[in-house]
């Protein structure tokens, strides 16, 4: 190979290596409503894995109705499973620190995401969740599916107005 081509080939190899290290998550094109930081392997922003509503809606959606301690009647919730959101970010750890818009924080064992069908709800009763009524995102356990979930332990892990998860 002629000596003059070696710098070009080297440059192409460096460019290709850089492309293979690029973030697998597409950048959020809309307003970011959830950021997952800490122990995440897939990042699309300097802060970690950032999601807009469209990105969350592209994940498989789950729906369930359950009674909550905050409402008299059962509510229908819709959103991706928490485990699917964490998988999209390739998150791994032992604890999730959930933070709400008002800076409320709660610790959620990472295993809850696989043990229960916890969802990151973006709809209540087929409507987007406004900030004034627990939105835009609400971590919800299927309280009516198992007696053990109907306790303060799990109610306190249900963070509404969710803005971020830190994986520890």
What does the model show?
The chain is globular and about 40 Å long. The strands form 3 sheets. It has a 5-stranded mixed sheet with strand order 2-1-11-5-6. With 168 residues, the protein is α+β, with helices and mostly antiparallel strands. It has one domain: Sulfite Oxidase, Chain A, domain 2. The longest helix is centred in the N-terminal third of the chain and has 15 residues, at 6-20. Helix content is 21%, strand content 30%. Mean pLDDT is 90; it is low at 7-23. The termini are far apart. It has 5 helices and 11 strands; from the N terminus they run αββαββαββαββββαβ. A hairpin with a 4-residue loop joins strand 5 and strand 6 (105-109).
Strand content: 25-35%
Helix content: 10-25%
How many structural domains? 1
Q: Which residue ranges are poorly predicted, with pLDDT under 50 across at least 5 consecutive positions? A: 7-23
CATH class: Alpha Beta
Question: Could you give the order of strands across the largest sheet?
Answer: 2-1-11-5-6
The total beta strand count reads 11
The CATH level-2 architecture is identified as Alpha-Beta Complex
CATH topology: Sulfite Oxidase, Chain A, domain 2
Shape assignment = globular
Radius of gyration: 20 Å
